[in-house]
TrEMBL record:
Gene3D superfamilies: 1.20.1050.10, Glutaredoxin. PANTHER family: GLUTATHIONE S-TRANSFERASE GSTA (PTHR44051:SF8), GLUTATHIONE S-TRANSFERASE-RELATED (PTHR44051). Belongs to the GST superfamily. This is Disulfide-bond oxidoreductase YfcG.
């Protein structure tokens, strides 16, 4: 296993070290030397949002020239899950520097009050950045994060399309399709197939079938695409959002060879170096390493916390 290209050796050792030490893993990734100190000094280790000074070198120029992006000071909270890798792959594709905190969801740290200040929904991913006014801004929900990153830091439209263009709205269509359809449905398929303590065939059939139906919608769209991407002539956040779930298709018993266009698209995107790096941050992704043991461990790790989390939710809300 090779470390993603831009993680320093020292940070890599931390990133893949055992979590049992209970050390909070904080890594900085990015192309700019010196970024690490600049960013980590601004954050309290509790993860609380603090006032951060404004580092924009030339705020006024940015507003004058839409081609000039502000300087990011992004801290990403994520784990190696479909929603989590959506943001690491996007950040890697955009080549943005970011500080990474591996929020291991199996520890349920995502439910702690400090993190609920960042994402009130208690889930990953979320980011904190410095906004134009010099104050921190939080962004949660994967789709909202992808839109924020491209709105602010993608002036050349590597992963987006000019605002107001046809492609811009078509990109939104597929982004929302993933967020309202594939994510929730495939998430439930994983739950009933992999995590539920009792086997409920109706739940399995309902959500696995729904996942297949949604993959077919993608497959039909791709069959009409000249570029091989979901929208327009290049990769976009629409592809990134869908890909993060589609690579988990086999995990819910949906083999990709049922959908030839989708399979081709998945192979093309997964071969991109930035995407490959993003897949394995913060942890090596068993599902992408053809590692059956890794996949079994993934299942076990998630089955345990999902059950604990459900019990806690039932106590809190079951009687309401
Ligand atoms: N709608 C949210 C869903 C986020 C989500 O469900 N994240 C999962 C990991 S894939 C999570 O944090 N689960 C932890 C929990 O449920 O406590 C998004 O798109 O960002």
């Amino acid at each position: 296993m090779h470390p993603p290209a831009r993680i320093s050796k020292q940070l890599f050792a931390g990133a893949f070290g055992s979590y049992s030490t209970r050390l909070r893993s904080i890594y900085i990734l990015g192309p700019h030397p010196g970024t690490r100190d600049n960013i980590s000094n601004k954050f309290h280790s509790s993860g609380q949002i603090q006032k951060r000074s404004f580092h924009h070198t030339n705020k006024l120029d940015y507003h004058k020239s839409p081609k000039m992006a502000p300087q990011p000071h992004i801290k990403l909270y994520t784990d190696s899950t479909p929603n989590g890798i959506k943001i690491t792959t996007a950040l890697e594709e955009l080549g943005l520097p970011y500080e990474l905190e591996h929020l291991d969801i199996s520890t349920l740290r995502q439910k702690e009050p400090w993190y609920l200040e960042i994402n009130p929904n208690g889930r990953i991913p979320a980011i904190v950045d410095t906004f134009d006014d010099g104050e921190s801004i939080r962004v949660f929900e994967g789709g909202s994060i992808l839109q924020y990153l491209t709105d602010r830091y993608d002036p050349k439209h590597k992963l987006s399309f000019p605002k107001g263009s046809r492609e811009y709205y078509e990109c939104n269509n597929w982004l929302f399709f993933q967020h309202g359809g594939i994510g929730p449905m495939q998430g439930q398929a994983s739950h009933f197939l992999r995590y539920a303590p009792t086997k409920i065939q109706y739940g399995i059939d309902r959500y696995v079938t729904e996942t297949k139906r949604l993959y077919n919608v993608l497959d039909v769209q791709l069959s009409k695409s000249k570029s091989g991407f979901l929208v327009g002539d290049h990769i976009s956040i629409a592809d990134i959002a869908a890909l993060s779930w589609v690579i988990f298709g086999p995990y819910v018993d949906v083999p990709l060879d049922l959908f030839p266009n989708l399979q081709k698209w998945e192979a093309m995107l997964s071969a991109r170096p930035a995407i490959t790096r993003g897949f394995h941050i913060p942890k090596v992704l068993g599902i992408k390493s053809d590692d059956p043991e890794g996949v079994a461990k993934y299942q076990q790790r998630h089955a345990d916390w999902v059950f604990k989390g459900m019990q806690a939710d039932q106590q809190a809300f079951g009687q309401k």
